[in-house]
Amino acid sequence: MANYILKRLVYAVPVLLGITIIVFLIMAAIPGDPATAILGSYATPENVEKLNRDLGLDKPLVQRYLIWLVNMLGGDFGRSFSLNRPVLDEILERFAATLVLAGTSFVLCSLAGILAGTVSAARQYGAADRLITFTVLIGISVPSFFLGMMMILLFAVKLRWLPVSGMYAIYGGGDLPDLLAHLVMPALALSAVATGVIARLARSAVLEVLRQDYIRTARAKGLGETRVIAGHALRAAMVSIIPVLGIQAGFVLSGAVYIEMVFQWPGVGRMLVEAILKRDILLVQGGVVFVAGCYVLFNIAVDVAQSLLDPRIRT
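Now predict its structure.
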């Protein structure tokens, strides 16, 4: 197992290196002069030249990339000019909020998706199967940001059950109930599409297992249907479901950008959008690389979990 984990970590190195190259080149290819955009009305030729020199934008492209990469490997992601603070400090502070939102959404979509898919497979072509399939199709079809806005209109504006936006109340609050009240709508909106995808694939995986000979043998021995499905079919199907969870984790993490903007959630996604609008290059590059690194590490964890269920994967 240790060798397998080490091998997966080694394979992740070129992936992360490729991400840094792509992010750097995209930011370098954006039209316009970043220094001019930063300075605004103060963009005199002298000020632009000085800022380009301070930011290192006067150096060749390859040299700029290598300097940024070496500094980042040493833990120095640079300094955000728009916030006047270290990029890594800002990312870590914002990532805590994103982790709460994305983590809650991932748990919701995983549990609800697996449960719905299993029930649908166990009641194939029945009323429960048709209802779950119809609900899943709606969940997959509706964009998360649109669903979020509709939820705000219904539950916050019309019914006044939940707060409109933010992570905590502006005045008072700040405790766990306040956080949960603000978390309900963005977490549900973010998890809706992923829940539908997981439910559909879980249904297919469980149905495939239910057709196996050993399932018929278990039923012939007199085992109850609940035990057959939960103890045999679902356990075997998890080998196929776990990789889907890893993919949906990336979807949830990237989808947090839209949801954080809709609900004004103070996370990394909202930070990246604001940094792009302000042309804060180092903040954008650092944020994207950090999030991508978290996604890669999570997929390694998913692969390890899958190999524990099916040791053949290690070979």
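Residues 96-277 form a domain with the MetI-like fold fold (CATH 1.10.3720.10).
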